C-alpha cells in the first residue's frame, strides 16, 4: 500500500510503492523485492549526483583546467563504479521485479500494450486489480538493459491523479490505459465505472458497451455540480455500508472478500475529468473524505487534474489531499516530461492502447461480465442441522436462505418482538427468484414438522417451481407440509385459496380468543393443541390484479385483511413477482398492503423495480451483478437496511432427497395435498366418488337429480352441477363455441369439444342417479359425423343403456321432427323423468318454418321449456351461436332456462344473459355457470371433457352399488 506521508525527494533517497506496504497481504515478498532492487537504482543515481554537486560546491579551489580535468576524471571513475554496481544489482533484481509485476498487476499487459495476444482469463470473481501498469521508468545517466515498470496501486490500495496544465488528446489514452487494466485485472462484472465529465469531453465513451450488460457497470453522473454531489453522497453511503459489512474484521474490501470466499459488494472506479471544474465546496469536502477512506472500502479514484482550471473552491486544501492520498503523474506536454510522485528522480514513459486494442479488449471484458455468475453456496451448508423437525413454531418460524460474508442470512416470521411477519420478493427473469422460493420453503421444511408448519403454494405462471412438491404419476411422494398447491393457477383459484385462508383465520380467531389474542399465547396455554403456522407463498401474485373487475377487488380485500390480521393467528404471506411496479397504484405503499411487508428480498432488477419493492430512494437491486445475488432488507426497504447477500443454490437432486426423507417421516394418516393444475382437463372419472354418493342418496330417498358439468376452480374436488327440479325454468343451456376456431386450411378440430363433453357428462351423471332405470333419454344431434366420432358420441347411448335407462338418438331433420311429440308428452300427465339432450341446436335453423301440419318447431321447443319441468321433462341443450339461442327462446331466454353454461362467449353476450355486473373473457378450458335460482353469482368451472374409451371403461367397470 502506498503511503506518501513519509516520502522524501532528493539524492540518495527514493520513494516507491513498497514504502509503508501492509504486511500479511499477498505479494509481500515480491513487493519488497521490487522495492529493494529499484532502491539500488535510485541510490546509485543519488550517489553519482552527490559527487557532482560536491565538486561544483568547491569550484573556487578547482579553478585551474587541471583541477577541472581531475574532477572530470574522478567523476567518470565514480560514475563507472556506480554503473557497475547498478548493473549488478539490476541483474540480480530484475527477475524479482518481473515476478512482482506479475503478482501486483496480473494481466497480459504485464509489460506493455502489444498488437496481439489474448486477454488474460481472469474468471475468479475475487480477483482485483490492486496495481496497474502505467508505463516504464527511465533513470537519468544510467544505461539499463532491462526496463523498470511503472505500476501504481489502485483497487483496495489507492488513487491516481493525472495532472496537466493543458487539455490534450494523449491524456485520454492514459485514462483508457488505467481503466481498461483495472477492468482486465478484476473479476468479471466486479468493477463498476462511475464518471463525472463536467466539460462533456466523452473520454470514457469507448466503455459504453459495458452498459449493455448492466446499467451499473458503466454510469455517467452528468455534468452539473449537483450531479457530482449526488454521486459523492452515494459513494459515502457505500463506504458506510461496506464498513458495516466488514465490522472491523478486515483491512479492506478485498481482504474481506478473500476471507469469506465471496465477492461481497463490488469495486468502484470513479473517474473525475477536468478537476476541479464543477466541484462545489460540499463536493470538495466529500471528495477529501473518500480519497482517504474509499480505497479500503472498494472505491478508488482516477482524477484528471486540469491545473489551468479557474475553479479555486478549496483548491489548495484539496490539492494537498490529492498529493497525500493519491499517486500523482504530472505531464508537461510542452517540454515532453512525465514525472511520477513515487520516483521523482526518474522520467516516466506512459503507455496507451490503440483504438483497436481498446475496442477488442472492452468487448471481451463485456462478454465475460455478461456470463459471470455468483459463487455457489450449497443449500445444506447454511442449514443448522441435518436432523429433521427439531424446532417448534409457537413463537415464529425461521428459514436460512444464504450468506452475507461469514454470516448466514435468515428470515424470521412471527416474532412478536421484531414484528416481521410477511415477505415481498422480486427479481427479473432468470435472476433466481424461483431458486430463492425453493430454498426458503425447504429450509422451513428441514426445521419444522407438518404439525408445526403448513404450506399453501400458488404459482400463477408455469408451475415448475412447486411441481416437485406434489404427488405425480412418476413421483408419488410429496412434501408433507403442503396443504394445497396451485400449478398454473388462475385468478379464480387464487381467490378460492385466499377465501380458504380467511376462513381459517376466522376459525383460529374463535379458538384462540379465550386464551388471548395471538397464536404464541394460545400455544403456551394449550401445549398439546395442533395449530401449525401457515405460510402462503404466491408466485407472480400480480396476476391477481390484471383486470379491473370484482375478482381484483376481492383479491385486494382478502390480501389486506390477511396481511394485517393473519399474523396474530399464525398466517403469513410471501408474495413474489418479476414486477410490482405496475400495481403500485392499486396497492399504495403508504397505509396499503406493502406496509405489512417489512421483509423485502430484491434480486437483480431494474432501477424502477428496485424502487417499487424497496423504497423510492433505494436502487440497490439494480446494482446487483449476478444471478443469485439479492438485497435482503428487513426494514421496509429503507436504504439503511440493505444487506447484499448471496442466496444458496437449491440443487434439484439435494431437494429431492430431502423431500423423500420428509415423506418417509410423515405422520401416520397424512393426506397428500390438494393439487390444482390449471391446464389439466377434467373427466367424469374424477367425479366417480361423488357420483356414487349421489346414486346412494337417490336410492335411499327421492333426492333431486343433478346433472354434473365440471370441476370447480377451488381447493375442493367436488364437481359442480345443475339440480333439475319440477320448478319452471329448470333446464340447462350450454352456449358458445365448444372449442377454438380452426384456422383456414386446417382440418377438423382435434381438441376436445367442451360443450359436447359438458352435455354428455350431465346426461350420464343423471342416468347414474336413476338406479332403477326410471328415466328415458332422447338425444337430438345436429353434429357432423367427424364431430360425433371425435367426441365419443357412439359411447353415450351405450352408457345410458348400461345404467338401465331407455335412450334413443335422432339426427338432423329427424331431431327437428321429434320436437312436436316431445312437446305433446310434456303436456300430458307427469310420468317418469325424461331428459332431452340436444347437441348443436342452433344448426336446426330458425325453427319457425311450419311443417306439413302448420306447426312451427320453435313453438314446440318453447312449450317444452315452459311446461316440461312440471311433467318431469328437462332440456339440456347446446347452442354454439348465441344469437340463434336467443331467437329460439324468445324475448328473454333467462326466464325460460335458469341455468346457462357459457363457454367461448363474448362479454356483450354475457351481459345480455347474466347481467351488467358480470365480467368474463373467453379462456381455454374454462366455463362460466350462471344459475338464476341456485347460485348467488356466476361460478367459473372446468368443463368435463367428451367421452373416450378410457372414460367409458372406468365408468362401466366401477361397482356403483357396492
Summary?
The chain is built from 25 helices and 31 strands.
Number of strands: 31
Q: Round the Cα radius of gyration to an integer and report it.
A: 41 Å
Q: Alpha-carbon distance between the termini?
A: 88 Å
- In percent terms, what proportion of residues is strand? 15-25%
Unreliable runs, pLDDT <50, ≥5 residues?
Answer: 1-27, 59-63, 107-111, 114-118
Helicity level, as a percent range?
25-40%
Q: How can the largest sheet be summarized?
A: 11 strands, mixed
Q: Count every helix, treating DSSP H or I runs of 4 or more residues as helices.
A: 25
Structural class, from secondary structure content? alpha/beta
Mean pLDDT across all residues, rounded? Answer: 84
Instruction: Give the overall shape.
Output: elongated
Major beta sheet, strand line-up: 12-11-20-19-18-13-17-16-14-15-21
Amino acid at each position: 500500500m502506498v503511503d506518501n506521508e513519509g516520502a522524501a525527494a532528493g539524492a540518495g533517497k527514493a520513494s516507491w510503492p513498497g514504502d509503508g506496504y501492509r504486511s500479511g497481504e499477498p505479494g509481500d515478498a515480491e513487493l519488497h523485492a521490487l522495492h529493494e532492487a529499484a532502491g539500488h537504482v535510485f541510490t546509485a543515481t543519488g550517489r553519482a549526483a552527490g559527487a557532482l554537486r560536491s565538486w561544483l560546491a568547491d569550484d573556487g579551489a578547482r579553478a585551474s583546467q587541471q583541477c577541472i580535468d581531475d574532477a572530470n576524471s574522478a567523476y567518470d571513475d565514480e560514475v563507472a563504479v556506480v554503473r557497475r554496481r547498478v548493473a549488478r544489482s539490476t541483474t540480480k533484481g530484475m527477475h524479482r521485479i518481473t515476478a512482482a509485476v506479475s503478482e501486483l498487476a496480473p494481466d497480459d499487459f504485464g509489460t506493455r500494450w502489444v498488437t496481439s495476444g489474448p486477454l488474460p482469463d481472469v474468471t475468479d470473481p475475487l480477483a482485483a486489480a490492486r496495481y496497474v501498469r502505467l508505463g516504464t521508468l527511465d533513470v537519468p545517466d544510467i544505461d539499463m538493459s532491462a526496463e523498470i515498470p511503472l505500476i501504481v496501486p489502485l483497487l483496495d490500495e489507492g488513487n491516481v491523479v493525472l495532472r496537466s496544465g493543458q487539455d490534450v488528446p494523449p491524456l485520454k489514452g492514459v485514462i483508457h490505459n488505467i481503466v481498461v487494466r483495472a477492468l482486465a485485472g478484476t473479476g468479471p462484472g466486479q468493477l463498476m465505472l462511475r464518471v463525472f465529465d463536467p466539460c462533456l469531453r466523452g473520454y470514457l465513451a469507448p466503455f459504453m458497451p459495458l452498459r449493455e450488460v448492466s446499467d451499473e457497470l458503466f454510469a455517467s453522473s452528468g455534468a452539473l455540480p449537483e450531479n457530482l454531489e449526488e454521486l459523492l453522497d452515494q459513494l459515502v453511503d457505500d463506504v458506510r455500508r461496506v464498513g458495516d459489512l466488514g465490522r472491523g474484521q478486515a483491512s479492506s474490501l478485498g481482504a474481506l472478500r478473500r476471507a469469506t470466499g465471496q465477492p461481497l459488494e463490488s469495486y468502484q472506479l470513479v473517474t473525475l475529468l477536468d478537476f476541479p471544474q464543477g466541484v462545489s465546496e460540499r463536493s470538495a469536502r466529500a471528495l477529501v473524505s473518500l480519497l482517504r477512506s474509499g480505497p479500503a472500502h472498494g472505491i478508488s479514484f482516477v482524477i484528471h487534474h486540469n491545473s489551468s482550471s479557474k475553479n479555486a473552491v478549496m483548491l489548495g486544501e484539496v490539492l494537498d489531499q490529492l498529493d497525500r492520498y493519491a499517486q500523482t503523474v504530472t505531464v508537461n506536454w510542452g517540454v515532453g516530461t512525465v514525472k511520477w510522485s513515487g520516483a521523482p528522480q526518474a522520467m516516466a514513459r506512459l503507455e496507451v492502447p490503440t483504438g483497436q486494442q481498446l475496442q477488442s479488449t472492452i468487448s471481451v471484458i463485456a462478454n465475460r461480465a455478461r456470463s459471470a455468475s455468483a459463487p455457489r453456496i450449497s443449500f445444506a451448508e447454511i442449514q443448522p442441522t441435518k436432523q429433521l423437525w427439531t424446532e417448534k413454531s409457537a413463537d415464529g418460524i425461521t428459514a436460512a436462505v444464504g450468506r452475507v460474508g461469514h454470516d448466514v442470512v435468515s428470515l424470521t416470521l412471527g416474532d412478536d418482538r421484531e414484528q416481521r411477519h410477511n415477505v415481498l420478493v422480486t427479481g427479473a427473469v432468470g435472476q433466481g427468484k424461483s431458486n430463492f422460493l425453493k430454498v426458503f420453503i425447504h429450509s422451513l421444511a428441514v426445521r419444522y414438522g407438518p404439525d408445526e408448519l403448513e404450506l399453501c403454494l400458488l404459482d400463477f405462471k408455469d408451475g415448475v417451481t412447486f411441481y416437485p412438491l406434489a404427488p405425480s404419476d412418476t413421483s408419488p411422494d410429496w412434501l408433507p407440509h403442503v396443504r394445497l398447491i396451485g400449478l398454473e393457477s388462475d385468478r379464480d383459484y387464487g381467490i378460492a385459496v385466499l377465501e380458504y385462508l380467511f376462513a381459517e383465520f376466522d376459525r383460529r380467531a374463535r379458538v384462540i380468543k379465550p386464551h388471548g389474542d395471538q397464536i404464541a399465547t394460545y400455544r403456551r396455554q394449550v401445549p398439546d393443541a395442533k395449530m401449525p403456522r401457515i405460510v402462503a407463498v404466491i408466485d407472480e401474485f400480480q396476476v391477481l390484479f390484471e383486470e379491473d373487475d370484482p375478482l381484483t377487488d376481492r383479491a385486494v380485500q382478502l390480501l389486506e385483511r390477511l396481511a394485517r390480521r393473519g399474523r396474530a393467528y399464525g398466517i403469513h404471506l410471501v408474495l413474489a413477482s418479476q414486477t410490482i411496479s405496475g400495481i403500485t397504484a392499486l396497492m399504495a405503499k403508504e397505509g396499503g398492503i406493502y406496509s405489512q411487508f417489512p421483509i423485502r428480498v430484491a434480486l437483480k432488477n431494474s432501477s424502477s423495480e428496485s424502487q417499487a419493492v424497496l423504497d423510492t430512494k433505494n436502487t440497490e437491486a439494480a446494482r446487483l451483478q449476478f444471478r443469485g445475488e439479492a438485497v435482503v432488507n428487513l426494514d421496509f426497504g429503507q436504504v439503511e437496511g440493505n444487506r447484499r447477500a448471496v442466496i444458496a443454490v437449491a440443487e434439484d437432486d439435494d431437494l429431492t432427497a430431502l423431500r423423500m426423507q420428509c415423506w418417509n417421516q410423515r405422520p401416520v394418516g397424512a393426506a397428500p395435498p390438494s393439487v390444482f393444475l390449471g391446464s389439466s382437463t377434467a373427466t367424469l372419472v374424477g367425479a366417480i366418488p361423488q357420483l356414487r354418493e349421489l346414486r346412494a342418496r337417490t336410492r335411499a330417498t327421492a333426492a333431486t337429480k343433478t346433472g354434473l358439468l365440471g370441476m370447480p376452480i377451488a381447493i375442493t374436488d367436488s364437481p359442480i352441477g345443475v339440480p333439475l327440479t319440477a320448478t319452471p325454468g329448470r333446464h340447462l343451456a350450454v352456449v358458445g363455441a365448444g372449442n377454438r376456431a380452426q384456422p383456414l386450411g386446417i382440418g377438423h378440430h382435434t381438441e376436445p369439444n367442451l360443450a359436447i363433453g359438458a352435455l354428455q357428462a350431465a346426461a350420464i351423471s343423471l342416468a347414474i342417479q336413476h338406479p332403477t332405470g326410471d328415466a328415458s333419454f332422447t338425444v337430438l344431434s345436429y353434429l357432423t359425423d367427424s364431430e360425433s366420432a371425435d367426441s365419443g358420441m357412439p359411447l353415450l347411448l351405450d352408457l345410458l343403456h348400461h345404467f338401465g335407462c331407455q335412450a334413443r338418438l335422432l339426427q338432423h331433420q329427424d331431431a327437428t321432427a321429434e320436437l312436436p311429440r316431445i312437446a305433446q308428452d310434456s303436456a300430458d300427465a307427469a310420468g317418469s323423468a325424461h331428459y332431452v339432450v340436444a347437441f348443436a341446436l342452433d344448426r336446426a335453423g330458425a325453427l319457425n318454418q311450419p311443417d306439413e301440419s302448420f306447426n312451427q318447431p320453435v313453438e314446440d321447443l318453447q312449450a317444452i321449456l315452459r311446461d316440461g319441468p312440471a311433467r318431469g321433462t328437462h332440456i339440456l341443450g347446446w347452442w354454439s351461436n348465441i344469437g340463434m339461442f336467443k331467437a329460439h327462446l324468445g324475448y328473454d331466454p333467462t326466464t325460460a332456462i335458469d341455468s346457462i353454461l357459457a363457454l367461448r362467449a363474448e362479454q356483450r353476450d354475457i351481459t345480455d344473459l347474466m347481467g351488467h355486473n358480470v365480467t368474463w373473457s373467453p379462456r381455454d378450458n374454462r366455463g362460466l355457470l350462471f344459475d338464476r335460482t341456485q347460485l348467488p353469482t356466476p361460478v367459473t368451472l372446468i368443463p368435463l371433457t367428451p367421452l373416450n374409451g378410457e372414460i367409458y371403461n372406468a365408468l362401466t367397470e366401477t361397482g356403483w352399488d357396492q
